[in-house]
Amino acid sequence: MTATQRMTEPYVRMVARDAYFWAWPMINVYNRRLAFKDVPVPGLMGGVAPAAPVNHLSMLSNYIEPQERVVACPNQDVVYGGCALGLDESPVIIQVPDFGKRFWVYQIVDLRTDSFAELGAMYGTPPGFYLLVGPDWKGDAPQGIAKVFRATTQTGFVVPRVFQEDTPQDNTAVRSIISGIDLYPLAMYDGQMKRRDWSKIPNFPTDTSSESETKWVVPERFVDELPLVMKDAPPLPGEEARYARIRAVLAAAQSDPALKQVMTDEAAKAEQELVAPLFEFRNYGIVLPHHWSKQDNGAMFGTDYLTRTAVAKSNILVNKPSETTYFYQDLDASGDRLDGANRYTVTFPMDGLPPVRGFWSLTLYNENHFFAPNDLKRYSLGTKNKGLQANADGSLTLYVQADSPGAGKEANWLPAPKGPFSLYVRAYWPTEAITSGNWTPPAVTRA
Known about the structure:
By secondary structure, the chain is an alpha+beta fold.
């Protein structure tokens, strides 16, 4: 099909609808890159979210704060960093300091949110310098580079995660370690490990009053942004016909404003009818006992467009399953929506905690997939909490409710908001019991 062929409005709508759903994660990541292009130096957006120029890193120096709205479903188990990659501008150096026995992982994904580099505790990665390059880069790595990782797209994202126990003492220890984490253009490489006190970077004021995640995909801009991401992300094997079909419709729309409006209108409908429902975990994923669900191809989606878009909508930038397995929950054991008007328990049997080599946690999110502020400033429970109290039989009961469960139980209390909420189990560096599907979380039981 060529741009000179006639196209009916229903056909253009069909192609636009499919293209919008398919490209949603790529447009999301691409617009995150554009959002950071004018940031002057590494700092914090609104004082709570890492922000840096493209191909530069910014790190937090403690757990992320509840008013963060850049990425849904954050956790308070790790100290985060963030970097938007523009590998067409330059290859980048990424530093790995000596983490000792502390859990860490760098998530490094392309425009499709698929991982293209493996750096972390589970890989036995030694300290040193690593090089990230784009698909068209030709050159030799300078002396001192431990390994080169090549992306399939020019745009990507890097998110370091470093485990921290919930104590001031461990935060002090973490700050010393993360001072050696950095990322910068190849031209800045001199073979010397750069260090930075991430607690002293500037704050860029911004509005943090929104209740929901920053809107990274806007249907009204879809037709203009789609060619940019298609140029950045060449077709995967088998996608050639898809690309040809979309490009033909885009060419027709460029010469016919009415067709462009049709595409824009259909993008808005696809947002509401196809993408928006995937924000709720109960609407996608692999069904598990007790209404839990999961996905088993995070950051390696390939052509699984449903899961890739669903994850991008509900909790973008997940690790690969071998790095982290995620379990999602919107419902109690009876199939009713979780709501802070009720009280719940989650009881792990003796020897039934998530089997991990790294750490595990149970996090609570409000209906917008962010932390629900509470007096304890507690948003998750797990490995980081040394005060958890086991039952007499060795089991562990966590109390999920809006009010205190009573004296002697508050160490195991995960405060809930007055309204709908979701639960989310993270298993970092899971054992085979999890990756093989032989372990799933216990039921969320209404008291």
